[in-house]
Structures are given as C-alpha cells and as structure tokens.
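User: structure tokens for this one?
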Amino acid sequence: VTNGVISRFPLLAAINRALRLAEGDTRDTRFERLTATLAIASGHATTDDLVIHAREVRVEAAGRMGFDRSLNLAGQAVLSPERTASAIRSVRELSGLRNAQGELELPLTIAGSLDNPSFRIDVRGAVGKSLKEALRRRILGIIRKPT
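Assistant:
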C-alpha cells in the first residue's frame, strides 16, 4: 500500500515522545509505503516482514494481528540519519546506536488493540546497549595501546 493513513494509530507521536523530539502529537500515522506478507488462520494474521515507511522513520516488525483487532508485534523503529541527529541532540547517549548508514535503531513493541494501541520504545535498553558498546570500544582501545 502506498501513500496512506492508519487512523487513530499514533506510532510516530509515540516515537517522538520517547526520544523527546518536538513533533506534532497526531493520532494518525501517515505513511509512504506499507508492506507485509500475511498468513491468515485461526482468527488472526501473522507476519514476519511488516515494514512501514513513514516520513523519516521505518518500522520493521513481526507478530500477530487478531480479527478481534488485537495487536502483538515486535521489531524496531529505524530513524533516518537526519532524524537520528535530532534524537542524539535530545538524548546524547543514543549516539552509539547508529548503524553503518547513520540511522538509529530502536527496539519497538506494538500491543493492545487497533482501537487502543500501545507503543513501547525501549529507550532505556537502547541507551544501556549504547553505553555498553562505548565501554567495549574504550576498553579495546586501552588494550591495543602499546605500554
């Protein structure tokens, strides 16, 4: 699907709040592209390749969507390099999470229901991972220095 809106699904607002970014708090998620392969059986659809491209964020997720409108998806939100720079200005400790393309990868869980979705961005876990990686690089630098 291209150029659409998921009504009452404030995914981008949740990501912005988690990263302390000053963006609009819209209840809808506008996207440029949404793709997924779905297996439908026993009252639910499962996917392992859901991708939503929305403005400067790409969401990659896998999980289950029930015909009762329930959601249980996990994956990551990937911010564009420009958005990453803005996020790092807000939460400096995220700098160690940039990938080779300069994007920030954040663990994401989408649960609840389509009528009342809950979004969990594990910023604390991401910051811990970033600090751990920075410490690992620093220790390696000390070990490699000639004495």
